Amino acid sequence: MTLLTMMAVVTVAIVVQRNLFAVVVFGSIYSFLMATALVALDAVDVAMTEASVGAGMSTVLLLTALNLTRGDEVKPLRRPLLPLFVAIVIGAALVYGTFGLPAFSDPQAAIHLHVVPRYLVDSLRETGVPNVVTSVLASYRGYDTLGETTVVFTAGAGVIALLRRRRGKAKQ
Amino acid sequence: MTRDLVLRVLGKVLIPFVLLFALYVQFHGDFGPGGGFQAGVITAAAVIFYAIIFGLPAARRFAPDRLVESMIAAGVLIYGGVGVFGILMGGNYLDYFVLAHDTVHGQERGIFWVEVGVAFTVSGVMTKVFYQFAERRRVVDEA
Predict the structure, then answer these.
(1) Does the interface ipTM go beyond 0.90?
(2) Considering only alpha carbons, which residue of chain A is nearest residue B124?
(3) Record: contact A149-B117, CB cut-off 8 A
């Protein structure tokens, strides 16, 4: 509860703050709080990813990008009433959707009865890897992870292609 | 490059441990939290810290562009290669059971190489993207 309150406070701070440097730092703080929340939920692998990618890597990349632009957010020309309305409606729909979810950590929830018991029981015998997250990620769902790696590769290639062309133009 | 002595000394002392931790996360991922993705990000983070403290040219001497770029492609190739190797050994694509005489051993071997591939691609992409951003500043300044 404390964590969620702190995350809400940080979110409000991000919205209110106009200095982009402060926004990036608040974003990093938010990621660390999120990582702590994930540790509290026993999702250590995800927490590690959140701490290293969310708090570390994206903060550094945003700061280097900030180096290239101006440091303050420009005031919007019009009052963003329509976007606010859309955001509130979607937010309300999402909250309404949570009422249909099974109770938190309910062992009888549908997601815990499908393939999860099989992974938990047979993973060590079949793969010899004690960390079920690793065996699911790399073996049972090997195709998904291959797709994921290809996505990272494609994204990297895209960024390289975009930023390289600019450099060529600057030289001419 | 920063002239701050504390940062430079601390960076020199700590960056090897960051790299060591990345290796630990990579190879201990079977037993504890972590795996290729996290290890790749931590490796890239070590290079980026080095670039921030000692300057981009110093980091480029440690991890040249050619190496970083080939790592991006090599990771996907290693991952895909594990799958093709499974076919060659008489199984399906990405079938690890056939990679060794013992099926459990084959699984461990397959997972190991797949994680190596993920780590290569992720650390390569992260480092390269940072290089691109950090370098644009310089180009803009010169223009």
Answers:
(1) no
(2) A156
(3) yes
pTM: 0.83
CATH number at residue A12: 1.20.120.1200
Distance CA A42, CA A47 (A): 9
Please state, in angstroms and rounded to a whole number, the distance separating the CA atoms of residues A103 and A163. Answer: 47
Residue reference for tokens 């900030």: A66
Give me the domain span that covers residue A64.
1-75
CB-based contact (8 Å) between B141 and chain A?
no
Q: Per the structure, how many domains does chain A have? A: 1
Q: Which residues fall within 8 angstroms of residue B128, CB to CB, at 6 or more apart?
A: A156, A159, A160, B65, B68, B69, B72
Convert the pLDDT of each residue in B36-92 to its tens digit.
Answer: 889 999 999 999 989 988 888 888 988 898 999 999 999 999 999 988 988 888 888
Q: What is the DSSP string of B1-47?
A: ----HHHHHHHHHHHHHHHHHHHHHHHTTTTSS--HHHHHHHHHHHH
Q: Looking at beta carbons, which residues of chain A come within 8 Å of B66? A: none
- Please check whether residue B46 is in contact with residue B129, taking contact to mean a CB–CB distance below 8 angstroms: no
Residue B76, token pair as written in the block:
């996907």
Beta pairing partners, A19: A72
Nearest Cα to B34, choosing from A133, A141, A164, A116?
A: A133
Q: pLDDT tens-digit profile of A103-136?
A: 877 778 877 788 888 888 888 888 778 888 888 8
